[in-house]
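User: I'll paste a sequence; please echo it back and then give the predicted structure.

Assistant: Echoing your sequence first, then the prediction.
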Amino acid sequence: MSREQLIAMTRREMDNQQHNRIDLMPDVLQVPTADYYDADRWQREVDRVFKRVPLALAFASQIPEPGDFLAIEVVGTPLIIVRDDEGKIRAFVNQCSHRGNYVTNEASGNVKSFRCNYHAWNYNLRGDLINILDERNFGEVDKSCLGLTALPAAERAGMIWVTLNPESTLDIDLFLNGYGEMLEHLRLAETHVAGQQVLEGPNWKVAYDGYRDFYHLPVLHASSIGRESTPKADYYSWGPHVRVTAPGRFDDLEGLPEAQWPERLMKSGVWTIFPNISIAGGVTGPYMISQMFPGKSPGESTTTQYFAAFESPDEVDQQGLKAYMSLMVDVVRDEDYYTGLRVQKALATGAKKYSMFGRNEGGGQLFHRWIDTLLETNDEDLPDLFNNIPEHLRVPDKVPGN
């Protein structure tokens, strides 16, 4: 079915190109400018978006073997992602049950267990407490109740997903709403991280707005990407996740039978994962996967750009990769985020009450509508929301499954 969706989307884009049109949203959307700088609103976004939905936090290729782990901090939550001795992905809060110290201070590695360096309490790869130092004199406790706090975790489409709420009942596949099958076409499980770099930016929504927007490409990026870039985009949604593509990208398929249409061309565009991932490239070179998180205040964000290559590490064109990474600094930091920081400063004056997203900016419209909805949805109602997505949280239907 997912290949059929790729074909249907491609057919739609070729038809749009032939008729010189793009698919439009019903109306212009106004977003209150205070949404970008109000501190209380920002904290609610951290708590009710980032701490409640599954987040794509790592790549399966980063921890391929049993015992491999990553220790990271996500919006203030220290956590461990590990592949256990049976190959299953698990995630835990990086917190000892004794007095709260981290159970690992290393960023990555391969271990048999996690041992707290404060009092040597020891946990296996499944998070069970297996040893208490001087247990006889410590006193009687039930070790089976004192394991690491587990977080919901799953492996899908070559990425590792974790929900920061240990009590979450929002299933990863329900959250993906069929998007996981589409992401499989990107073949991220066959890539490895060949390079990465970190960029500082404006408010996370100011920054992320640009990842769902082709409208600015020939203007803001005229000197880097080029004026010939199209400002026209079409959007396809699976729940809150959006693919951005454009008519005119599929001319090479004209005259070919659909059975011969290569996925390499059909999957072109930007694939965004709500609330903070953008996947671009991959057609003729490595993917650039941008992972964005709110910073320490409403006016800050941090983006990690991962460059995922299909070639083995010793076959990667290092010179070409270095040039591509440098270009993405120019494009994102020096153009997108340079502009975004000025947008942020101007919005904070309150001189304008609303920002606008046009009928041609469906990706941005959907992004803000989903944030608003999640802020008003209680934990116990999240599964029902994703099971019964209302029309205003969808891009208008154009292809089967969209």
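The chain has a mean pLDDT of 96. The radius of gyration is 22 Å.
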